[in-house]
Amino acid sequence: MAVKLKKLYEGKAKIIYAKTSKEVIATYKNDATAFNNLKKGSIKNKGAINNAISSYLFQILNHCDIPTHFIKKIDKKSQLLKKVDIIPIEVLVRNFFAGSLSKKFGVKEGTQLSDTLIEYCLKSDELGDPHISSEHILNLGLCDLNELELIDEYSLRINDILRSTFYSIGINLVDFKLEFGICKKTDELVLADEISPDTCRLWDLKTNKKLDKDRFRRDLGNIEEAYEEVLNRLNLTI
């Protein structure tokens, strides 16, 4: 970036810079973390790969009338976004048992759920992102009932769109994490954060090969190659 911009926030995967009072620039990092930042590392080209994938998927969602914070991809690692106030909830959308859900209930990973499951976590590294209920959300004042209902509605629609997108390239969308915020410019609820192999469990349809951050979490190796495979199947470049 030629002009030095004010850094507003640095997270585990992105740095957010001020652009205007209503717009920000998000720059993706190669840093990789897992287990609430207990495991740390770096994945070559992860920032550029996730930027390309997330930009593409946000464009699809925008075209499908899902309101998002995404405006455009501006360079290899950066996006121009609408400025939002993030609602401190992580929305987990699950199509199959995997990860903590399998461990919690003793169900084999890869077992399909009878219906899409939506779970919530409080967005708090300090507290370990604890699972919370809709009643917790409303009593803690994290959002109101209308916003929560809209979050659920958007999450299910996003799931349908993304499952179809990935299925068409031979990938199963096992589960994924979403974040939402209130847009500073329009005061509407919008999808925020990113959609990438960092935030989705993506398995090859035929082999169940993991093409996501579980390769980093579980020391499976070939992490960059897995991310690149998702990029290539989507016919994208960095």
What report would you give on this structure?
It is a single chain. This protein is α+β, with helices and mostly antiparallel strands and 238 residues long. Helices cover 29% and strands 33% of the residues. It is built from 6 helices and 14 strands. Strands 8, 9, 10, 11, 12, 13 and 14 form a 7-stranded antiparallel sheet that branches. Strands 1-2-3-7-6 form a 5-stranded antiparallel sheet, with helices on one face. The longest helix is centred in the middle third of the chain and has 23 residues, at 145-167. The chain starts with 6 loop residues before the first strand and ends in a 5-residue tail after the last helix. The mean pLDDT is 96.
Q: Would you tell me the overall average pLDDT?
A: 96
Q: Quick one: overall form?
A: globular
* Radius of gyration from CA coordinates: 17 Å
Unreliable stretches: none
Largest sheet: 7 strands, antiparallel
N to C succession of SSEs: EEEEEHEEEEHEEHHEEEHH
Q: Give the N-to-C terminal Cα separation.
A: 17 Å
Q: Quick one: how many beta strands? A: 14
Number of helices: 6
Q: What portion of residues belong to β-strands?
A: 25-35%
User: What structural category characterises the helix and strand content?
Assistant: alpha+beta
> Which range best describes the helical content: under 10%, 10-25%, 25-40%, 40-55%, 55-70% or over 70%?
25-40%
